[in-house]
Every structure is written in C-alpha cells, then in structure tokens.
Amino acid sequence: MADDRISNLPKHILCHILSFLPTEDAFATRILSKKWLPLWLSIPSLDFDQHRSTSLLPSSSSFIQFVYAAILGRPIHQPIKTLRLKGDCSNFHAKILLNAIADRKVENLQIDISNRENYFVFCKLPSTIFTIKTLVVLNLQSANFNVFPSSVHLPPLKSLHLENVRFLDSEYFVNLLNGCPILENLKIEIVAFEFNNDPC
What we know:
Low-confidence stretches: 196-200
Shape: globular
Distance between the termini: 64 Å
Radius of gyration: 18 Å
Order of helices and strands: HHEHEHEEEEHE
Oligomer: single chain
Strand content: 15-25%
Largest sheet: 7 strands, parallel
C-alpha cells in the first residue's frame, strides 16, 4: 500500500492547500482520516456560494447552517484572511454571521447576500462591518445600511467596491470614504440614499 504523503504534510501546509478549494469541498475532506477531520476549521480562506453548492446544500436553511458551522465552529483566535459569502440570508442571520466575522480579523471580505426572489429586497447588514480594523479589501453587493457608526476608521483599507448598496443618508457614505485614509481603489456601481432615493 502506497504511503499517504499528502496527509503527512504539516498542518499549516494542508490548510493552505484546502484554502484554494470551495469551502464545501474542503469540508468533504474531513472523512479522509482523523487528521483531516478538524483541518477545514483552520483554513485561512472561506468561500461560500449557495448557488454553487446546491447538490450538497439544497436549501437556504442548510446553506446558512453550514456557514454557521464553518465560522462559529472555529476558535475566535483563529483569523480568517479572506471570506466570500454569496447566497440568500435573512437580516437576522446576516447580523449574527457578520458580527462573528468581525471578531476574526478578516482582511478580505466579499458579501453578496441579497434576496434572490426579489432583486430589489436588499439585506440589512450590521454597521460593525465598518469597524473591522483589519480590512484591506471590502466588496459589498445588494446591501442596505439603516444604521451607521458615528465614525468609521478603516486604516488599512485599500480597495472598496460597492454595488447596489443603499444608505439611509448620504452622510453615511461620506463618513465611509473619510474613514479610509489610504484607499487606492474605489469602484461604485449604483449607490442610493433612502432619504432622496437618488442613485449615483
């Protein structure tokens, strides 16, 4: 019987390899052996796409439960370097998940959790996103912010992409830009303000 050379690699190398896989595929490797069982909870990059995962996670509830397990199941001191979340998600679950993500020192955050049955129903995201002081890249799509922190301080943020994002007031948007002192890349594809409903 041939030696299992891959399993004999150090844990940090295995986690690096798994980080290139969709998170549901990384999760599937846990059946290989006891050594692989906990590895998926330590990978530095998480990629959740509900529409890619329909065979494994056929419903919105099963998808959200999987995201909960992957994020809340890992130690809070275990940082997440990159996180991409795309799928259907209620305001309630979005708040819990994004608050948990904020505690895990994420650097690259990509969020698109609109209501797929109604494109114009945007998910209300918690303003704690704008207090994650480790963010370098932030990509938000189909999001609605009814509340906003009094001040935004995102010192390392270099790239900001907003697509179909609504703010309660234009002042929120101005505060966001003022809180990104070293911003290098700004991409805007429809930003609206609910007080006047004028997109820009």
